[in-house]
Amino acid sequence: MSPTWWIVIGLVAVVIGALVWLYNRLVRLRLRADDGWATIDVQLRRRYDLIPNLVETVQGYAAHEREVFERVTEARTRAIEAGGIRDQASAEDAVTAGLGKLMAVVEAYPELKADQHFLALQEELVGTESKIAYARQFYNDQVRLLNTAIDSFPSNLIARTFGFEKRSFFDIEEPVAEPVQVDLGRNE
Amino acid sequence: MHEQIAANKRKSVLLVVGAFVFFGAVGALLGYLFGTGVTGLVIALVIATVLSVSSYLYGDRLVLASSRAREVSAQDEPRLHNLVEGLAIAAGIPKPRIYVVPEQAPNAFATGRDPEHASIAVTDGLLATMDRVELEGVIGHELAHVLDRDMLLGTIVATLVGAVVLMSEFLMRSWFWGGLGGRRGNDNRGGPATLILFGVGFALMVLAPIAGEVIKRAVSRNREFLADAQGAMLTRYPPGLASALRKIGASPSAMHSANNATAHLWLSQPSRIEGQKLGPMEKIFATHPPLAERIRRLEEM
After folding, report:
1. Which listed residue, of A73, A118, A176, B281, carries a Cα 20 to 30 Å from A187's Cα?
2. CB contact (8 A) between residue A39 and residue B89
3. B168 lies in a domain?
């Protein structure tokens, strides 16, 4: 074979190699994003499991704070039923807010704050909430990498050919078409 | 960060090669002096091989054992376990094994060959003095070392340097006991032979501080700044670690299990002297930048 042929074969090999690498990178990023989502899911479930225990323990000391208990329990039910990343994120925020109220109630009951069982549950809750936050942080980082790869050249060509889809961030701070509040005449 | 990982792997390989050359040279020298030819070299290379392989596979256990660390379960230390698990999630690595070191000085280190085989150890003093946010900052710093493979390099350094120190002591002692007990009438080489052993042991003892210097170069102090910064990126809260470092600086307790072979692994340089000052030798071979400088950089983030 003439040298020209060798050059052509070499170039083709380089191009194929680059395509394989780009494809594998997309697969890896997608896998990491899936992993991130799975971790969020595990931690959210752990929190769902904690809530009934926590409510029951607090009820033992503060039975008349019914409104707060109902609110948390209801938020939990809604979160479990939520589908789709955006719905899930806003449902979870309601759970977090409910738990925040519950923990504020606890402040008024010194005996409850000294209860060993409650303290263990509280540590579990604080730990789980920070794990949710960290899992969210990790997932969003991965999604950012994946989405960037899907959008940028030349991996966007491969992403389009093989149907890689962008993921949504697990974050209600993202533009969810929220009405803009214009506060007129306040800063005058 | 990827360059950092690659550099650490490269340095680890270089160190192991260096250890081979070093042990080979000692073995060849002993073989030459005793007139046994290549036997000494072969034995030394076998020792170097065993040492390198075991420092890669079991270095973490060695380091943990030498600091008397014991593994703790999630029931024993729920707060610590929760924090480590959370930050491991943020870093996207499996949860490391968790150990506690029975020391009153607040400190921590990470070891293991890769993120899948990592361990984090904290002292009793750390658990007692730090609040949740500070502890989180410290764990973040240690996890950054895990991510960067700093702990692979650090652990290999610790075991190899530890081996040199051990060998020098062994040779010095064999002279001492050989001199006292005597190998009367054993053979006429006994006298000069033990002297040679002493000489080599002494040379190694002199080399140990130089090995310390090597550690200082290999385990550059910049990586502490880097781990501080990366840890803060994981926790997204630099003041946590800054406040932890301030508490560590104010703590007067000495680290009893610290030694020159493992000093570079710890979060802040351990001192064997009661009161917060480092000894003169510890200062010369400082493995860590001053706490005040680290705190200042964290506060500027």
Report:
1. A176
2. yes
3. no
